[in-house]
Protein backbone atom coordinates (compact mmCIF):
# COMPACT_ATOMS: atom_id res chain seq x y z
CA UNK A 1 0.00 0.00 0.00
CA UNK A 2 1.38 3.40 -0.92
CA UNK A 3 -0.01 5.87 1.61
CA UNK A 4 -3.32 5.76 3.48
CA UNK A 5 -4.65 9.30 3.69
CA UNK A 6 -7.83 8.15 5.47
CA UNK A 7 -5.71 6.77 8.34
CA UNK A 8 -6.40 9.74 10.62
CA UNK A 9 -10.15 9.46 10.12
CA UNK A 10 -10.17 6.26 12.19
CA UNK A 11 -9.62 5.81 15.89
CA UNK A 12 -7.65 2.82 17.19
CA UNK A 13 -10.65 0.50 17.30
CA UNK A 14 -11.57 1.62 13.79
CA UNK A 15 -8.11 0.79 12.47
CA UNK A 16 -8.21 -2.58 14.22
CA UNK A 17 -11.49 -3.36 12.45
CA UNK A 18 -9.88 -2.57 9.07
CA UNK A 19 -7.09 -5.03 9.87
CA UNK A 20 -9.59 -7.65 11.03
CA UNK A 21 -11.63 -7.40 7.82
CA UNK A 22 -8.52 -7.38 5.63
CA UNK A 23 -9.12 -3.91 4.20
CA UNK A 24 -5.62 -2.93 5.30
CA UNK A 25 -2.77 -4.88 6.85
CA UNK A 26 -0.99 -4.24 10.12
CA UNK A 27 2.15 -3.71 8.05
CA UNK A 28 0.38 -0.95 6.09
CA UNK A 29 -0.63 0.80 9.31
CA UNK A 30 2.84 0.57 10.82
CA UNK A 31 4.43 2.06 7.71
CA UNK A 32 1.86 4.86 7.67
CA UNK A 33 2.49 5.64 11.33
CA UNK A 34 6.26 5.64 10.88
CA UNK A 35 5.98 8.02 7.94
CA UNK A 36 3.76 10.33 9.96
CA UNK A 37 6.08 10.36 12.98
CA UNK A 38 8.99 11.18 10.71
CA UNK A 39 6.96 13.96 9.10
CA UNK A 40 6.11 15.85 12.31
CA UNK A 41 8.90 14.96 14.72
CA UNK A 42 11.38 17.57 13.42
CA UNK A 43 8.92 20.28 14.49
CA UNK A 44 7.47 18.71 17.62
CA UNK A 45 10.52 16.87 19.03
CA UNK A 46 8.26 14.18 20.46
CA UNK A 47 10.19 10.95 19.75
CA UNK A 48 13.32 9.96 21.66
CA UNK A 49 13.85 6.42 20.37
CA UNK A 50 12.45 4.64 17.32
CA UNK A 51 11.22 1.04 17.48
CA UNK A 52 10.70 0.69 13.74
CA UNK A 53 12.55 -2.60 13.32
CA UNK A 54 10.62 -4.23 16.17
CA UNK A 55 7.31 -2.74 14.98
CA UNK A 56 7.73 -4.08 11.45
CA UNK A 57 8.45 -7.53 12.85
CA UNK A 58 5.40 -7.40 15.16
CA UNK A 59 3.17 -6.31 12.27
CA UNK A 60 3.82 -9.59 10.45
CA UNK A 61 1.83 -11.41 13.17
CA UNK A 62 -0.51 -8.85 14.75
CA UNK A 63 -2.52 -11.34 16.77
CA UNK A 64 -6.24 -11.11 17.50
CA UNK A 65 -6.57 -8.66 20.39
CA UNK A 66 -9.01 -5.72 20.32
CA UNK A 67 -6.27 -3.46 18.91
CA UNK A 68 -4.53 -6.03 16.71
CA UNK A 69 -2.24 -4.26 14.24
CA UNK A 70 -2.74 -0.74 15.61
CA UNK A 71 0.35 1.53 15.87
CA UNK A 72 1.01 2.82 19.38
CA UNK A 73 3.53 5.05 21.17
CA UNK A 74 5.15 4.31 24.54
CA UNK A 75 6.10 7.05 26.96
CA UNK A 76 9.79 6.69 27.82
CA UNK A 77 9.12 6.29 31.54
CA UNK A 78 8.15 3.33 33.77
CA UNK A 79 7.20 0.97 30.92
CA UNK A 80 10.05 -1.29 29.85
CA UNK A 81 10.57 -3.35 26.70
CA UNK A 82 13.40 -5.90 26.52
CA UNK A 83 16.20 -4.63 24.30
CA UNK A 84 14.75 -1.11 23.99
CA UNK A 85 16.30 1.80 25.95
CA UNK A 86 14.25 3.32 28.76
CA UNK A 87 15.88 6.64 29.61
CA UNK A 88 13.25 8.42 31.73
CA UNK A 89 14.16 11.79 30.24
CA UNK A 90 17.54 11.64 31.96
CA UNK A 91 21.16 11.84 30.82
CA UNK A 92 22.03 9.36 33.55
CA UNK A 93 19.88 6.66 31.96
CA UNK A 94 21.07 7.36 28.42
CA UNK A 95 21.58 4.01 26.69
CA UNK A 96 20.31 1.88 29.59
CA UNK A 97 18.50 -1.15 28.18
CA UNK A 98 16.17 -3.27 30.34
CA UNK A 99 16.04 -7.03 29.90
CA UNK A 100 12.47 -7.66 31.08
CA UNK A 101 9.06 -6.17 30.24
CA UNK A 102 6.67 -4.49 32.62
CA UNK A 103 3.32 -6.15 33.14
CA UNK A 104 1.51 -3.23 31.54
CA UNK A 105 3.56 -3.67 28.36
CA UNK A 106 2.67 -7.38 28.29
CA UNK A 107 -1.01 -6.46 28.43
CA UNK A 108 -0.65 -3.78 25.76
CA UNK A 109 0.99 -6.28 23.44
CA UNK A 110 -1.62 -8.95 24.24
CA UNK A 111 -4.22 -6.41 23.12
CA UNK A 112 -2.45 -6.28 19.74
CA UNK A 113 -0.91 -2.82 20.02
CA UNK A 114 2.32 -2.30 18.07
CA UNK A 115 4.66 0.30 19.61
CA UNK A 116 6.58 2.23 16.98
CA UNK A 117 8.62 4.53 19.22
CA UNK A 118 9.37 5.84 22.71
CA UNK A 119 8.18 9.39 23.40
CA UNK A 120 9.75 12.33 25.18
CA UNK A 121 9.15 12.97 28.89
CA UNK A 122 10.63 15.30 31.52
CA UNK A 123 13.39 13.88 33.71
CA UNK A 124 11.82 11.21 35.96
CA UNK A 125 8.42 12.66 34.96
CA UNK A 126 8.83 15.41 37.55
CA UNK A 127 7.81 18.50 35.58
CA UNK A 128 4.34 19.29 34.18
CA UNK A 129 6.06 20.30 30.92
CA UNK A 130 8.21 18.14 28.64
CA UNK A 131 11.54 19.93 28.43
CA UNK A 132 14.28 17.52 29.52
CA UNK A 133 17.84 18.73 29.18
CA UNK A 134 18.69 15.32 27.71
CA UNK A 135 16.30 15.56 24.74
CA UNK A 136 14.92 19.10 24.48
CA UNK A 137 11.40 20.54 24.58
CA UNK A 138 8.30 19.04 22.97
CA UNK A 139 5.74 21.45 21.52
CA UNK A 140 2.01 21.11 21.29
CA UNK A 141 1.06 20.80 17.61
CA UNK A 142 -1.45 23.59 18.21
CA UNK A 143 1.31 26.20 18.59
CA UNK A 144 5.04 25.58 18.27
CA UNK A 145 7.08 26.98 21.14
CA UNK A 146 4.29 26.19 23.59
CA UNK A 147 4.33 23.12 25.82
CA UNK A 148 2.65 19.85 25.02
CA UNK A 149 2.37 19.38 28.78
CA UNK A 150 4.05 16.81 30.94
CA UNK A 151 4.98 14.35 31.77
CA UNK A 152 3.34 12.41 28.90
CA UNK A 153 4.05 15.30 26.52
CA UNK A 154 5.71 13.36 23.72
CA UNK A 155 2.89 10.82 23.61
CA UNK A 156 0.24 13.54 23.53
CA UNK A 157 1.95 15.53 20.77
CA UNK A 158 2.09 12.52 18.44
CA UNK A 159 -1.55 11.62 19.01
CA UNK A 160 -2.69 15.22 18.51
CA UNK A 161 -0.67 15.43 15.27
CA UNK A 162 -2.49 12.27 14.09
CA UNK A 163 0.67 10.17 13.87
CA UNK A 164 -0.96 7.50 16.04
CA UNK A 165 -4.55 7.27 17.30
CA UNK A 166 -3.59 6.48 20.89
CA UNK A 167 -0.49 6.45 23.13
CA UNK A 168 0.69 5.33 26.53
CA UNK A 169 0.92 7.78 29.41
CA UNK A 170 1.36 7.88 33.17
CA UNK A 171 -0.11 10.28 35.72
CA UNK A 172 1.46 11.04 39.12
CA UNK A 173 0.42 14.68 39.46
CA UNK A 174 -1.66 15.13 36.33
CA UNK A 175 0.72 13.75 33.73
CA UNK A 176 -2.00 12.27 31.49
CA UNK A 177 -4.56 15.02 32.02
CA UNK A 178 -2.09 17.92 31.66
CA UNK A 179 -0.89 16.96 28.15
CA UNK A 180 -4.44 15.98 27.19
CA UNK A 181 -5.48 19.56 27.95
CA UNK A 182 -2.46 21.07 26.18
CA UNK A 183 -2.97 18.95 23.06
CA UNK A 184 -6.75 18.78 22.75
CA UNK A 185 -7.10 15.08 23.61
CA UNK A 186 -9.11 12.83 25.87
CA UNK A 187 -7.03 11.66 28.83
CA UNK A 188 -8.13 9.60 31.82
CA UNK A 189 -6.19 8.73 34.96
CA UNK A 190 -7.59 5.46 36.32
CA UNK A 191 -8.42 4.72 39.94
CA UNK A 192 -5.48 3.76 42.14
CA UNK A 193 -4.74 0.09 41.60
CA UNK A 194 -6.71 -0.24 38.36
CA UNK A 195 -3.65 -0.91 36.14
CA UNK A 196 -0.49 -2.83 37.08
CA UNK A 197 2.77 -1.26 38.29
CA UNK A 198 4.87 -4.44 38.36
CA UNK A 199 6.66 -6.67 38.26
CA UNK A 200 9.46 -4.58 39.77
CA UNK A 201 7.23 -2.18 41.73
CA UNK A 202 4.07 -2.50 43.79
CA UNK A 203 3.15 1.15 43.30
CA UNK A 204 4.63 4.40 42.02
CA UNK A 205 4.94 7.59 44.09
CA UNK A 206 3.10 6.09 47.09
CA UNK A 207 0.20 5.12 44.85
CA UNK A 208 -0.18 8.59 43.30
CA UNK A 209 0.96 7.51 39.82
CA UNK A 210 -1.20 5.39 37.52
CA UNK A 211 -0.56 4.46 33.88
CA UNK A 212 -3.08 4.42 31.06
CA UNK A 213 -3.27 6.37 27.77
CA UNK A 214 -4.18 9.43 25.71
CA UNK A 215 -6.55 9.11 22.80
CA UNK A 216 -8.61 10.88 20.18
CA UNK A 217 -11.79 8.99 21.06
CA UNK A 218 -13.45 8.10 24.35
CA UNK A 219 -14.15 4.53 23.27
CA UNK A 220 -10.45 3.85 22.61
CA UNK A 221 -9.63 4.85 26.17
CA UNK A 222 -12.35 2.59 27.56
CA UNK A 223 -11.27 -0.37 25.44
CA UNK A 224 -7.61 0.16 26.39
CA UNK A 225 -8.49 0.16 30.08
CA UNK A 226 -10.53 -3.02 29.61
CA UNK A 227 -7.48 -4.64 28.01
CA UNK A 228 -4.94 -3.58 30.64
CA UNK A 229 -6.81 -3.35 33.95
CA UNK A 230 -6.97 -6.07 36.57
CA UNK A 231 -5.18 -7.45 39.59
CA UNK A 232 -1.49 -8.25 39.47
CA UNK A 233 0.24 -10.59 41.90
CA UNK A 234 2.18 -8.64 44.49
CA UNK A 235 0.32 -5.39 43.86
CA UNK A 236 -0.12 -2.97 46.74
CA UNK A 237 -3.85 -2.60 46.03
CA UNK A 238 -6.77 -4.66 44.83
CA UNK A 239 -9.98 -2.92 43.78
CA UNK A 240 -13.30 -4.29 42.66
CA UNK A 241 -13.60 -4.86 38.93
CA UNK A 242 -16.18 -2.82 36.98
CA UNK A 243 -19.60 -4.42 36.74
CA UNK A 244 -19.25 -4.80 32.99
CA UNK A 245 -16.68 -3.94 30.30
CA UNK A 246 -15.99 -0.22 30.34
CA UNK A 247 -16.42 -0.10 26.57
CA UNK A 248 -20.09 -0.88 27.18
CA UNK A 249 -20.38 2.34 29.19
CA UNK A 250 -19.57 4.36 26.07
CA UNK A 251 -22.94 5.32 24.64
CA UNK A 252 -24.86 3.94 27.62
CA UNK A 253 -27.57 6.05 29.27
CA UNK A 254 -25.97 8.70 31.47
CA UNK A 255 -29.05 9.64 33.44
CA UNK A 256 -29.25 12.93 35.29
CA UNK A 257 -25.97 13.48 37.08
CA UNK A 258 -25.43 15.67 40.10
CA UNK A 259 -22.30 17.67 39.29
CA UNK A 260 -20.28 19.77 41.74
CA UNK A 261 -18.21 22.55 40.18
CA UNK A 262 -15.58 25.00 41.40
CA UNK A 263 -12.60 26.96 40.05
CA UNK A 264 -10.74 27.45 43.34
CA UNK A 265 -7.15 26.17 43.06
CA UNK A 266 -6.22 23.33 45.38
CA UNK A 267 -2.52 24.16 45.16
CA UNK A 268 -1.03 27.67 45.38
CA UNK A 269 -1.76 29.50 42.16
CA UNK A 270 -4.11 31.58 40.10
CA UNK A 271 -6.53 30.55 37.36
CA UNK A 272 -6.42 32.12 33.90
CA UNK A 273 -9.69 33.51 32.57
CA UNK A 274 -9.52 31.11 29.59
CA UNK A 275 -9.60 28.14 31.96
CA UNK A 276 -12.55 29.61 33.87
CA UNK A 277 -14.32 30.29 30.57
CA UNK A 278 -13.82 26.63 29.59
CA UNK A 279 -15.51 25.50 32.80
CA UNK A 280 -18.39 27.93 32.37
CA UNK A 281 -18.91 26.73 28.82
CA UNK A 282 -18.91 23.16 30.10
CA UNK A 283 -21.41 24.02 32.84
CA UNK A 284 -23.78 25.42 30.21
CA UNK A 285 -23.40 22.26 28.14
CA UNK A 286 -24.05 20.01 31.16
CA UNK A 287 -27.22 21.92 32.00
CA UNK A 288 -28.30 21.74 28.37
CA UNK A 289 -27.88 17.97 28.59
CA UNK A 290 -30.11 17.83 31.66
CA UNK A 291 -27.58 17.46 34.46
CA UNK A 292 -27.87 19.23 37.83
CA UNK A 293 -24.86 21.49 38.40
CA UNK A 294 -24.13 23.00 41.82
CA UNK A 295 -21.40 25.44 42.83
CA UNK A 296 -19.29 24.31 45.76
CA UNK A 297 -16.37 25.64 47.79
CA UNK A 298 -13.83 22.89 48.44
CA UNK A 299 -12.12 24.58 51.41
CA UNK A 300 -8.63 23.49 50.41
CA UNK A 301 -5.52 24.71 52.25
CA UNK A 302 -3.27 25.14 49.20
CA UNK A 303 0.08 25.73 50.89
CA UNK A 304 -0.30 22.79 53.25
CA UNK A 305 -1.33 20.48 50.42
CA UNK A 306 1.55 21.69 48.25
CA UNK A 307 4.12 21.12 50.99
CA UNK A 308 2.84 17.63 51.77
CA UNK A 309 2.73 16.66 48.10
CA UNK A 310 6.23 18.05 47.49
CA UNK A 311 7.61 16.16 50.49
CA UNK A 312 6.41 12.85 49.06
CA UNK A 313 7.81 13.73 45.62
CA UNK A 314 11.19 14.57 47.18
CA UNK A 315 11.33 11.29 49.09
CA UNK A 316 10.47 9.28 45.98
CA UNK A 317 12.98 11.18 43.85
CA UNK A 318 15.74 10.36 46.33
CA UNK A 319 14.96 6.66 46.02
CA UNK A 320 14.56 6.92 42.24
CA UNK A 321 18.13 8.23 42.03
CA UNK A 322 19.35 5.40 44.28
CA UNK A 323 17.62 2.82 42.11
CA UNK A 324 18.99 4.43 38.96
CA UNK A 325 22.52 4.02 40.30
CA UNK A 326 21.89 0.33 40.94
CA UNK A 327 20.46 -0.23 37.46
CA UNK A 328 23.07 1.73 35.55
CA UNK A 329 25.89 0.40 37.69
CA UNK A 330 27.67 3.60 38.62
CA UNK A 331 27.44 6.34 41.20
CA UNK A 332 25.48 9.42 40.16
CA UNK A 333 26.91 12.91 40.33
CA UNK A 334 25.49 16.40 39.95
CA UNK A 335 26.29 16.64 36.24
CA UNK A 336 24.16 13.55 35.52
CA UNK A 337 20.89 15.26 36.39
CA UNK A 338 19.07 18.55 36.04
CA UNK A 339 19.60 20.83 39.07
CA UNK A 340 15.95 20.60 40.15
CA UNK A 341 16.01 16.79 40.09
CA UNK A 342 19.25 16.67 42.05
CA UNK A 343 17.88 19.12 44.63
CA UNK A 344 14.66 17.15 45.07
CA UNK A 345 16.74 14.01 45.64
CA UNK A 346 19.04 15.77 48.12
CA UNK A 347 16.15 17.13 50.13
CA UNK A 348 14.36 13.80 50.03
CA UNK A 349 17.47 12.05 51.27
CA UNK A 350 17.81 14.50 54.16
CA UNK A 351 14.21 14.13 55.32
CA UNK A 352 13.25 12.07 58.33
CA UNK A 353 10.83 9.19 58.34
CA UNK A 354 8.45 11.34 60.36
CA UNK A 355 8.59 14.08 57.69
CA UNK A 356 7.35 11.59 55.12
CA UNK A 357 4.72 9.98 57.34
CA UNK A 358 3.36 13.36 58.42
CA UNK A 359 2.82 14.31 54.78
CA UNK A 360 1.24 10.96 53.92
CA UNK A 361 -1.21 11.30 56.80
CA UNK A 362 -2.02 14.91 55.88
CA UNK A 363 -2.97 13.94 52.34
CA UNK A 364 -4.91 10.91 53.56
CA UNK A 365 -6.86 13.16 55.93
CA UNK A 366 -7.63 15.54 53.06
CA UNK A 367 -8.75 12.59 50.93
CA UNK A 368 -11.22 11.50 53.64
CA UNK A 369 -12.52 15.06 54.02
CA UNK A 370 -13.09 15.44 50.29
CA UNK A 371 -14.83 12.06 50.07
CA UNK A 372 -17.35 13.29 52.62
CA UNK A 373 -17.69 16.71 50.99
CA UNK A 374 -18.54 15.24 47.58
CA UNK A 375 -20.39 12.13 48.79
CA UNK A 376 -23.70 13.23 47.26
CA UNK A 377 -22.26 14.19 43.85
CA UNK A 378 -21.63 11.91 40.90
CA UNK A 379 -18.72 13.95 39.53
CA UNK A 380 -16.70 17.07 40.27
CA UNK A 381 -15.91 19.56 37.50
CA UNK A 382 -12.91 21.92 37.65
CA UNK A 383 -10.46 23.37 35.15
CA UNK A 384 -7.79 20.85 34.18
CA UNK A 385 -5.04 23.49 34.33
CA UNK A 386 -4.52 26.96 35.71
CA UNK A 387 -3.33 28.28 32.36
CA UNK A 388 -3.47 27.55 28.63
CA UNK A 389 -0.34 25.80 27.23
CA UNK A 390 2.58 27.93 28.39
CA UNK A 391 5.69 28.83 26.44
CA UNK A 392 8.79 26.69 26.72
CA UNK A 393 10.99 27.69 29.64
CA UNK A 394 8.35 29.48 31.73
CA UNK A 395 8.74 27.06 34.66
CA UNK A 396 12.53 27.12 34.70
CA UNK A 397 14.54 29.11 37.22
CA UNK A 398 16.52 31.99 35.74
CA UNK A 399 19.11 34.50 36.90
CA UNK A 400 20.04 34.48 40.58
CA UNK A 401 17.50 31.78 41.43
CA UNK A 402 19.00 29.40 38.88
CA UNK A 403 22.51 30.14 40.16
CA UNK A 404 21.52 29.48 43.78
CA UNK A 405 19.88 26.22 42.76
CA UNK A 406 22.92 25.09 40.82
CA UNK A 407 25.41 26.01 43.55
CA UNK A 408 23.34 24.40 46.29
CA UNK A 409 22.82 21.23 44.27
CA UNK A 410 26.49 20.94 43.37
CA UNK A 411 27.52 21.47 47.01
CA UNK A 412 24.85 19.04 48.25
CA UNK A 413 23.24 21.70 50.43
CA UNK A 414 19.78 20.17 50.28
CA UNK A 415 18.65 21.29 53.73
CA UNK A 416 20.01 24.81 53.17
CA UNK A 417 18.12 25.26 49.91
CA UNK A 418 15.00 23.94 51.64
CA UNK A 419 15.30 26.62 54.32
CA UNK A 420 15.84 29.45 51.82
CA UNK A 421 12.51 28.71 50.14
CA UNK A 422 14.10 28.53 46.69
CA UNK A 423 12.65 25.09 46.02
CA UNK A 424 9.20 26.27 47.10
CA UNK A 425 9.56 29.16 44.66
CA UNK A 426 10.32 26.76 41.82
CA UNK A 427 7.53 24.40 42.87
CA UNK A 428 5.18 27.37 43.10
CA UNK A 429 5.60 28.07 39.38
CA UNK A 430 4.68 24.48 38.62
CA UNK A 431 1.67 24.51 40.95
CA UNK A 432 0.50 27.77 39.37
CA UNK A 433 0.24 25.85 36.08
CA UNK A 434 -1.32 22.71 37.64
CA UNK A 435 -3.28 23.83 40.73
CA UNK A 436 -6.01 21.18 40.23
CA UNK A 437 -4.67 17.89 38.86
CA UNK A 438 -2.63 16.58 41.85
CA UNK A 439 -5.73 16.16 44.02
CA UNK A 440 -6.99 13.03 42.25
CA UNK A 441 -3.48 11.57 42.51
CA UNK A 442 -3.36 11.65 46.30
CA UNK A 443 -7.06 10.71 46.69
CA UNK A 444 -6.66 7.91 44.15
CA UNK A 445 -9.90 8.80 42.34
CA UNK A 446 -10.40 8.40 38.58
CA UNK A 447 -10.17 11.72 36.75
CA UNK A 448 -10.34 12.80 33.11
CA UNK A 449 -9.59 15.84 30.98
CA UNK A 450 -12.07 16.41 28.16
CA UNK A 451 -11.26 18.77 25.22
CA UNK A 452 -14.34 20.96 24.99
CA UNK A 453 -12.88 24.47 24.58
CA UNK A 454 -10.32 26.29 22.42
CA UNK A 455 -9.32 29.87 23.29
CA UNK A 456 -8.99 32.90 21.00
CA UNK A 457 -5.40 31.88 20.17
CA UNK A 458 -6.58 28.48 19.01
CA UNK A 459 -5.09 26.67 22.02
CA UNK A 460 -7.01 23.77 23.59
CA UNK A 461 -8.29 24.09 27.18
CA UNK A 462 -9.42 20.94 28.98
CA UNK A 463 -12.24 20.53 31.47
CA UNK A 464 -11.58 18.03 34.25
CA UNK A 465 -14.08 15.63 35.76
CA UNK A 466 -13.33 13.51 38.83
CA UNK A 467 -15.55 10.66 40.02
CA UNK A 468 -15.87 8.57 43.15
CA UNK A 469 -13.11 6.05 43.86
CA UNK A 470 -13.46 3.13 41.45
CA UNK A 471 -16.14 4.71 39.27
CA UNK A 472 -14.54 5.06 35.84
CA UNK A 473 -17.88 3.89 34.44
CA UNK A 474 -19.65 7.19 35.10
CA UNK A 475 -16.73 9.10 33.57
CA UNK A 476 -16.87 7.08 30.35
CA UNK A 477 -20.66 7.46 30.11
CA UNK A 478 -20.42 11.21 30.60
CA UNK A 479 -17.39 11.61 28.31
CA UNK A 480 -19.17 9.80 25.49
CA UNK A 481 -22.19 12.07 25.89
CA UNK A 482 -19.97 15.15 25.79
CA UNK A 483 -18.07 13.80 22.79
CA UNK A 484 -21.34 13.39 20.89
CA UNK A 485 -22.63 16.81 21.91
CA UNK A 486 -19.40 18.71 21.21
CA UNK A 487 -17.25 16.57 18.89
CA UNK A 488 -13.54 17.35 18.92
CA UNK A 489 -12.15 14.82 16.44
CA UNK A 490 -12.54 17.18 13.47
CA UNK A 491 -10.46 19.90 15.12
CA UNK A 492 -6.99 19.51 13.66
CA UNK A 493 -3.87 21.39 14.76
CA UNK A 494 -1.60 23.44 12.46
CA UNK A 495 1.19 20.87 12.80
CA UNK A 496 -0.28 17.64 11.52
CA UNK A 497 1.11 14.48 9.97
CA UNK A 498 -1.30 14.42 7.03
CA UNK A 499 0.59 13.94 3.76
CA UNK A 500 0.66 17.18 1.74
Structural class: alpha+beta
Q: Count the helices. How many? A: 16
Strand content: 5-15%
Determine the fraction of residues in helical runs and give it as a percent range. 25-40%
Q: Radius of gyration, Cα only, in angstroms?
A: 21 Å
Cα separation of the termini: 17 Å
Instruction: Give the integer mean of the pLDDT values.
Output: 95
Query: How many E strands?
Result: 13
Going across the biggest sheet, name each strand in turn: 6-8-7-12-13-11-9-10
Q: Biggest β-sheet: count, sense, barrel?
A: 8 strands, mixed
Shape: globular
Pattern of helices and strands:
HHEHEHEEEHEHEEHEHEHHHEHHHHEEH
Essential attributes:
500 residues, alpha+beta, eight-stranded mixed sheet, three-stranded mixed sheet, 13 strands, 13% strand, globular
Would you kindly provide a brief summary of this structure?
The chain is α+β, with helices and mostly antiparallel strands and 500 residues long. Helices cover 40% and strands 13% of the residues.
Word description of this protein:
This protein is an alpha+beta fold. The protein is 40% helix and 13% strand. It is built from 16 helices and 13 strands. The strands form 3 sheets. It has an 8-stranded mixed beta sheet with strand order 6-8-7-12-13-11-9-10, sandwiched between helices. A 3-stranded mixed beta sheet has the order 1-3-2. The protein has a two-stranded antiparallel sheet with strand order 4-5. Helix 5 packs parallel to helix 6, helix 10 crosses helix 12 and helix 10 packs across helix 13. The longest helix has 27 residues. The radius of gyration is 21 Å and the shape is globular.
